[in-house]
UniProtKB/TrEMBL annotation:
This is Translation elongation factor EFTs/EF1B dimerisation domain-containing protein. Residues 240-262 are annotated as: Disordered. InterPro entries: EF-Ts_dimer_sf, Transl_elong_EFTs/EF1B, Transl_elong_EFTs/EF1B_dimer, Transl_elong_Ts_CS, UBA-like_sf. One of its GO terms (molecular function) is translation elongation factor activity. The lineage of its organism: Eukaryota, Fungi, Fungi incertae sedis, Mucoromycota, Mucoromycotina. Gene3D superfamilies: DNA helicase RuvA subunit, C-terminal domain (1.10.8.10), Elongation factor Ts, dimerisation domain (3.30.479.20). Residues 86-247 form the Translation elongation factor EFTs/EF1B dimerisation domain. Keywords: Elongation factor, Protein biosynthesis. GO terms for cellular component: mitochondrion.
Length: 262
């Protein structure tokens, strides 16, 4: 057991707990070890979290992570007058942790980070691209576009390991995709605005004009329509984009009709 004559500053103790959400004992230890230097205490906690997180991650690595959330992030591209949308799947062990604010916050930031991956991941002619998980794990963790904080943290991998240490469950980043062409929008079910259990992305492309020719009102209308389509995709899980692509059996099963309705 470590003894010290340094007493933790009460105001700093409260501040550090509010900012980091660490336990009282860990906050006290950080301030004692750094002689009540707030910046050094934060650095000490960060290093300690990585060490304890790595140990915990090693222990839980073989445990199945079958729960989790789908999370999206979207940003408008002014030059193209379109939108970039990403969706990632972050898994944990229990449904309880999948609803945890810390876990969902991590998922939102990973989705935001994946927005930056499209330049090196895209293939010509493919609107929806898979993102390399290895590359994403090594990227600096970015704040979500809708978040107030602008802090750029550790890498995605380091942040996952740190969260494992705090939550105590195995966490894995399973997959990630990005849509960087057209007017795209997403819909998530079974959660909040940014997280859900089931998700879909729809991409709309105007036929007669380019995206650059659309005014702000038309672009917003298409974005709203794309979200409505994404919601239908989540609700009905369609197999085909066009009715004529479906077999007769599928048409009967899905209730499709080749006729057009006004």
């Amino acid at each position: 057991r470590c003894y010290s004559t340094v007493k933790p500053d009460i105001k700093l103790l409260k501040q550090i707990r509010q900012e980091t959400e660490v336990s009282m004992s860990k906050a006290k230890e950080a301030l004692i070890q750094t002689n009540n230097n707030y910046a050094e205490a934060l650095a000490w906690l960060s290093k300690d979290a990585q060490i304890s997180g790595a140990k915990k991650a090693q222990k839980v690595a073989d445990r199945a992570a079958a729960e989790g959330v789908l999370t999206t992030a979207s940003v408008q591209v002014p030059v193209q007058n379109g939108y970039k949308t990403t969706m990632i799947e972050l898994n944990c062990e229990t449904d309880f942790v999948s609803k945890n604010d810390m876990f969902r916050g991590l998922a939102s930031r990973i989705a935001a980070t994946s927005l930056l991956m499209h330049e090196t991941q895209r293939s010509a002619g493919r609107p929806i691209e898979s993102i390399s998980i290895d590359s994403l794990l090594q990227s600096p963790l970015m704040p979500h576009p809708e978040a107030e904080s602008s802090e750029i943290g550790k890498t995605v991998q380091e942040s996952i390991v740190e969260t494992i240490g705090k939550i105590g469950e195995n966490i894995t980043l399973r997959r990630a995709v990005i849509v960087a062409d057209g007017i795209s929008a997403s819909y998530l079910h079974g959660g909040d605005a940014q997280n859900g259990k089931i998700g879909g992305i729809a991409v709309l492309q105007p036929k007669k004009v380019s995206l650059a020719e659309l005014d702000e009102k038309a672009s917003a209308a298409l974005s709203k329509a794309a979200r409505q389509v994404a919601r239908q995709v989540v609700g009905f899980s369609p197999k085909y984009l066009n009715p004529e692509d479906a077999s007769e059996i599928d048409r009967q099963t899905e209730g499709m009709s080749p006729e057009e309705f006004d």
